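As a point of orientation, let us examine one representative protein, giving the amino acid sequence and backbone structure tokens.
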Amino acid sequence: MKLRLGSAALTGALVGALSLTGCGSDDNSGIPGALDFSLDDLHCGPDGTLLASGSSAQANAMEVWVNTYQTNCAGSQVNYKATGSGAGVQEFLQGNTAFAGSDTALDADEIEESRSVCRDGGRALNLPIVAGPVAIGYHLPGVDDLVLDPDTLARIFDSRITRWNDPAIHRLNPDARLPDAPITPFHRSDGSGTTENFTSYLRAAAPDSWPHEPDKAWAGRGGQAADGSSGLVGQVQQNEGAIAYFELSFAHRNEISTVRLDTGAERPVAATVENAAGAVDRARVVGRHGDLALEFDYTARAVDVYPIVLVTYEIACDRGNEPDSVGLIKAFLGYAASEEGQRALARIDYAPISDPIIDQVRRRIDAMA
């Protein structure tokens, strides 16, 4: 039997996964300590347990949503395991989870493959529910403000700029006291939608300096690897001269300095929720037949647009879900896409999805069967 509603064995393995498995220590949580999870009007689905896995980029958002849902719907358990987008998609396509989180949309072949787990002629939908900036975090004592442009960023992560006092970095930061010290770029070791989004930006904005095709697997030269967003955070914290990419919520919670981007706009653009929302507002739906996959302009040049932004999609069957779990899937994802669920994102450094798109998401969730 396909496991959409948790069996005892899997439930035992994943209980407390939100808690969050794959998110590292409590210090990596993006939840403010005093956040109130109680709501007056949350619509609860039927009692039961849902298994889900995937994106670690949305781990902090999932932690808020799961805690809120379970606080108000005591008979339900949602176990989200932050395994990374690649693993989450694989588990969903194997029929082992109710939904997956992925920082890149399923492609046409994967949607076709989903027909084997979505019964009654159903197929998987890409539902964009979480957005946020991919921050470039660095550890460089004495340098609290660092500006990089796409070409310099690409050459750093491709191991072609290797010292912090390189002329290309100095040109962008003439007043900074840049040390004559090695740069240690870190990238994800696991299959990661964050990696694919970051390298999509490098490929679009600096094609001459980043020759590699975007992918969940890291293709750049050199550097060192760590598992998950929390793994990259830990490496930046521990290694002077380190630089890496991860979601803004991880950077803020761990007090890690982040790069401002020289995009060609009037002034460098900081990684903020507001500037990421500017990029999301300009995204367009490119999915077909009800799918809501989005396309971004990575080369935008505006002072209110931070272009390294990712959207996490919740991937679920439009129909053909397990009858005993579909009500709980709809209730939980419906809360995440609701005004209250989206409002909670800004408090933990994510950007809500723009109204025209999130309205379509809500309609897709309502129609699930």
Notes: The chain has two domains: 8-132+312-366, 134-279.
